[in-house]
Write a sequence for this structure.
């Protein structure tokens, strides 16, 4: 019988316990005992990147909120040109370190790609200080969904002022994509009020999944 290996643990500022585990060649991240992500389910992250990067200008600047296991970053780097700048905001330094130390053969080497800039900070703070018209694409995958939230502080990204800050950070014609584990009609309406448009795209967790279990909220700045 194949055992589950306990690789690393950390406690966040809000007291949550993160545990990185490996079983049968796959990696799992648990928060307070609840599985948050794994290397077995990455299809929706890849779909997110494809939707976000479908219409890129020359020398695009991309912002990814949330590194996770790097699957969104991996697909973005496959789609953007060599002169792109891809900024990644990851709140937890341990996540960045674990990608390098334990996930090198999965996606961990991507954090040192010459096109990538890693910010170990809250993506909300980065948006606050970015100024107007900085990014051509923004991808936000920082929580399980707009409602309910794993971390309450992330509400700042999903409320009206957070949506307006994200819109201001986009170039005209730029695109933003929000990842969610759930459908959320209220959030979709909020996005539409700020951007004037929204598309709710169903996404699969696994390539061979029969159902679309995740939702991607896509909006363009006019």
């Amino acid at each position: 019988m194949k055992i589950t290996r306990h690789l690393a643990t950390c406690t966040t500022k809000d007291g949550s316990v993160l545990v990185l585990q490996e079983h049968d060649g796959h990696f799992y991240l648990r928060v307070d005992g609840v599985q948050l992500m794994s290397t077995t389910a990455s299809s929706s992250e890849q779909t997110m990147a494809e939707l976000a990067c479908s219409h890129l200008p020359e020398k695009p600047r991309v912002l990814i909120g949330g590194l996770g296991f790097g699957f969104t970053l991996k697909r973005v780097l496959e789609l953007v040109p060599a002169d792109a700048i891809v900024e990644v905001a990851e709140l937890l330094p341990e996540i960045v370190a674990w990608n390098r130390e334990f996930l090198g053969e999965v996606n961990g080497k991507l954090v040192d790609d010459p096109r990538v800039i890693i910010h170990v900070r809250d993506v909300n703070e980065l948006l606050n200080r970015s100024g107007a018209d900085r990014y051509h694409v923004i991808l936000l995958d920082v929580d399980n969904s707009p409602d309910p939230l794993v971390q309450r502080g992330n509400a700042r990204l999903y409320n009206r002022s957070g949506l307006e800050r994200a819109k201001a950070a986009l170039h005209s014609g730029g695109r933003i994509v929000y990842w969610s584990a759930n459908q959320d009609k209220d959030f979709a309406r909020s996005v539409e009020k700020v951007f004037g448009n929204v598309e709710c795209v169903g996404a699969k967790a696994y390539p061979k999944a029969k159902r679309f279990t995740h939702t991607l909220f896509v909006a363009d700045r006019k």
